[in-house]
Amino acid sequence: MSGKKLIVGNWKMNLTVQGASLYVHKLEKKIKTHRDVEVVLAPGMLALQSLGLQVNRRQFKLAAQNLYWKDEGAYTGEVSAYQLNGLVEYAIIGHSERRHIFHEHDKDTRGKVQAAIRHDITPILCVGETAHEKAAHETHAVLHDQIVGGLANITADEVNGMVIAYEPVWAIGTGNNATPVDVEKAAQTIRDQIAHLYGAKVSKSVRVLYGGSVSSHNAASYLTTPGIDGLLVGGASLNAEEFSVMVELAHTFNETKNLARKAA
Ligand code: PGA
Fold it and tell me: Which pLDDT score is estimated for 1?
């Protein structure tokens, strides 16, 4: 857990380069910069370069939605961590759409996590169970496997700065968001697993996000869920009003918590 909240907007395959620029203009006006909230935008690959010139990095950081683990070579259509270096601060890795539509396995996510770290990009590793796995009470085992599989050969120091997003597959884009109780349990499972692999200190410092049908209406409950450091927002991040409300909520909750801490 870090004191700062992290709010990530995953735009997926939406907006043209020009549309992305116009949208960022809107967000720039709507979203206040708070020292206790880090706001990350993950536009499509094509818009990264122009947005890199447009955004004030104190207001918005940038993330790639994917990357390839080889640095250079004959890999038609891929973009490597090496090429993204300097352009993005973060990369979303192992998103369920990558796993399920493009058949990425833990072996792929592992290579990508390693490549991101090698090129100074903070990985946001996505983990989460399908509806079928949830029904079979396999959430714990799935999270365990995806974390062990995704983080093999990564050192404690490297995991320290990482972000892990709990994104139940059944909750993504469905309007069927997970209950805060389930999210708290999943965050605990993730942190227990990290503690087991890397020790208690790393398990406390790794940042854990929740994602899956987050909106301005349910964001507050996740921002106050123990073990959760922020949100990975898909659909609602394409609505400036919705997204800015979530950022303000993150700031408000942090401020309230700090005031309570000072008064205690
Ligand atoms: P959603 O997507 O907020 O539209 O459910 C979340 C994600 O895929 O990261």
Answer: 61
How much of the chain exceeds pLDDT 90, in percent?
A: 94
Q: What is the pTM of this model?
A: 0.96
Which atom from ligand 1 is nearest to the alpha carbon of 173? 5
Average pLDDT (133-161) is 95
Ligand 1 mean position, distance from CA 240 (Å): 15
CA dihedral over 22, 27, 28, 29, signed as positive or negative = positive
| 77-111 pLDDT tens trace | 999 999 999 999 999 999 999 999 999 999 999 99
Three-state DSSP at 60 gives coil
Question: Whose alpha carbon is nearest atom 2 of ligand 1?
Answer: 234
Ligand 1, pocket-test mutation among 232, 238, 239, 246, most atoms within 8 A of CB: 232
**Distance separating alpha carbons of residues 233 and 214, to the nearest angstrom:** 6
Atom of ligand 1 minimally distant from the CA of 96: 8
Distance CA 214, CA 168 (A): 12
Q: Compute the residue count for the chain.
A: 264
What the chain holds in terms of domains, given with CATH numbers, is 5-263 (3.20.20.70)
